[in-house]
Specification:
- It is a single chain.
- With 128 residues, the protein is mainly alpha-helical.
- The protein has 2 domains: 90 residues; 33 residues.
- It has 5 helices and no strands.
- It starts with a helix and ends with a helix.
Length: 128
């Protein structure tokens, strides 16, 4: 099984888990994890021992990676997975520049461009 398929399986688990966790339904989350773990064991049982070990290791790596990603930026993970974003998640959203700072940056870039063009035109006028 390729790594993309394994990643998809883990992401599907998280898509199912996150809404239940947000609803504080820990029993449902535990059931989902237990079902997932059983599916992994069932698939591994059908593989030869070396492939099974590699498969289980890849699944665990994907699970750990997604957990680390979620801990670092839960808002972005929810957004990427297409999970419903709740009002409480607004606090988790990465803070972008405000419109004011964006306008300020635009003004600075425009002033720099104007200065550069004035210098270019002055150079052309000097060589005429």
């Amino acid at each position: 099984m390729d790594r993309g398929t394994i990643r998809g399986m883990v992401e599907d688990l998280w898509r199912a888990m996150i809404p239940r966790a947000m609803a504080n339904d820990s029993r449902a989350v535990e059931d989902l994890v237990a079902q997932f773990d059983q599916r992994i064991k069932d698939v591994a049982a059908k593989l030869d021992p070396i492939e099974a070990a590699a498969f289980v290791q890849a699944v665990e790596a994907e699970r750990e990676g997604l957990l680390a990603e979620y801990r670092a930026d839960p808002y972005s993970v929810k957004q990427r997975l297409g999970v419903a974003i709740y009002a409480a998640d607004a606090q988790l959203a990465p803070h972008s520049h405000t419109a004011t700072s964006d306008l300020g940056n635009l003004a600075v870039r425009t002033a720099v461009r104007a200065t550069v063009w004035e210098a270019v035109w002055a150079a052309f006028r000097a060589f005429r």
